[in-house]
Amino acid sequence: MFRHAITVAAIAFAAVGVAPAVASAAPGSPAPTPLVLSAPKPLDLQPQSANGCTGSQVCINVIGSGLHVDAVSGDVNLSGSLKWCGRIEIRITKGGNTYNDKTSPSMCGTAGKSAVYSEQPNASYPDGSRVCVYARTSSGHNPGGPACETVES
Q: Where are the alpha helices (DSSP H) in 1-153?
């Protein structure tokens, strides 16, 4: 689990550096033990990520944690005098079911100028789902593909 809950009082006291007030003890009785709140330690909420390329031309970068996918980007990287025009498709599937299928507008890429497309599904998917980036070529070099990563708990 990557989310933690703390009380509003704890946040308020920690934010201003004030300890909560403690009532005075009645004469002859022991003093009450003060409640001491300390600021919570910073949490490392860096999402996990996965990335890879097919033949270093079609690449995928997935950001998320466990079964949750925050963002996916795909790009077509070319070298030399190669040129590519088409659409980049980002698809999330499992067992014949398509959960997310988004396609970029038409774009072109050349050596030194990658064609890039990103989506932010911000959703959870079944364990074992495949997140793939396809380069749908309309003209120029066919960069191959797809580049895929697997969503796992």
A: 8-16
Cα–Cα distance measured from residue 29 to residue 31, given in angstroms and rounded to the nearest whole number: 6
Greatest Cα-to-Cα distance within the chain, rounded to the nearest angstrom: 91
Hey, how many other C-beta atoms are within 10 angstroms of the C-beta on 79? 10
Contacts of 48 (CB under 8 A, 6+ apart): 63, 64, 65, 66
At 111, is the pLDDT very low, low, confident or very high (cuts 50, 70, 90)? Answer: confident
Q: Pick from 75, 78, 80, 93: which is nearest to 147 by CA?
A: 75
Read off the pLDDT of each residue in 2-30 and give the average, rounded to a whole number. Answer: 41
| Residue 121 contacts residue 68 (beta carbons within 8 Å) | no
99 Cα distance to chain centroid: 17
